[in-house]
Amino acid sequence: MSTVPGRAQRRENGTVGGVALVTGAARGIGAAVARTLAARGAAVAVLDREAAQAVAVADALEADGHRALAVPADVTDAAAVEDAVAHTEAALGPITTLANVAGVLRTGPLLEMSDDDWAHCLAVNATGVLHASRAAAARMVDRGGSVVTVASNAAGVPRTGMAAYAASKAAAVAVTRCLGLELGGRGVRANVVCPGSTDTDMLRVLDVDHAALVAGTPEAFKVGIPLGRVGAADDVAEVVAFLASDAARHVTLQTLYVDGGASLGP
């Protein structure tokens, strides 16, 4: 039997298995991640502050024959997240994968940004990652596990009107990579996925035409999307599932951009 941390239960490449906790799983990328991880063999805990929608996602997974559990919680509440993690392990078993997907978007020029917009983005997008990662990874230590944080290509490429969002996502990247550095020797891998424009409710709120996103907006110093299309939530979910699987067992501290080339490969 292998003595390498995190490989006590080897699986076929591409499968995930174990127990996955997905934050922000009620809709959009989070829901897609929950579905994809379930399809790869994981029991999935659906964490979201929207309780009714979290239950609906979990019920849909169970209807498809998967083990699932709704764990309503707000990632900005450290105690609530700790309780959700404990409840997940009591109901489904040891968490082997954490997918940090919960996120919010507040836009506007930096000089007009409110303190509330700044604080809210940091609370959900950065501190929420800290809360969930700390609670889940503390239990993964020495038994193994994977943390995957969904950030944004705005974390590495400046965007006009998105200072609060970009800063919070950059912080989420740093927290995740530091976690991976500190716990790599104890069997915990930590990686980041940075989507670009993705067809979700968050993007639709901006009311931007897909053709304009593909073409780019030179006046805002934003290039287009070389692959010629806006991403789908499943495009991001597939990469999260790869990083959570044994196929990526020697991958940690990495940031993968899933943006059709929009960030020109930083």
N-to-C order of helices and strands = EHEHEHEHEHEHHHE
The order of strands across the largest sheet is 3-2-1-4-5-6-7
The helicity comes to 40-55%
Count the strands? 7
Task: Give an account of the 3D structure.
With 266 residues, this protein is α/β, with parallel strands linked by helices. The chain has one domain (19-258): Rossmann fold, CATH 3.40.50.720. It has 8 helices and 7 strands; from the N terminus they run βαβαβαβαβαβαααβ. The protein has helices at 28-39, 51-63, 78-92, 115-140, 163-183, 201-205, 210-215, 233-244; strands at residues 19-23, 43-48, 68-72, 97-100, 145-150, 188-195, 255-258. The protein has a 7-stranded parallel β-sheet, sandwiched between helices. α1 crosses α8 (233-244), α3 runs parallel beside α4 (115-140) and α4 runs parallel beside α5. It is globular. The N and C termini lie far apart (39 Å).
Write the layout of secondary structure elements.
Blueprint: E1 19-23, H1 28-39, E2 43-48, H2 51-63, E3 68-72, H3 78-92, E4 97-100, H4 115-140, E5 145-150, H5 163-183, E6 188-195, H6 201-205, H7 210-215, H8 233-244, E7 255-258
Parallel strand pairs: 1-2, 1-4, 2-3, 4-5, 5-6, 6-7
Helix pairs in contact: 1-8, 3-4, 4-5
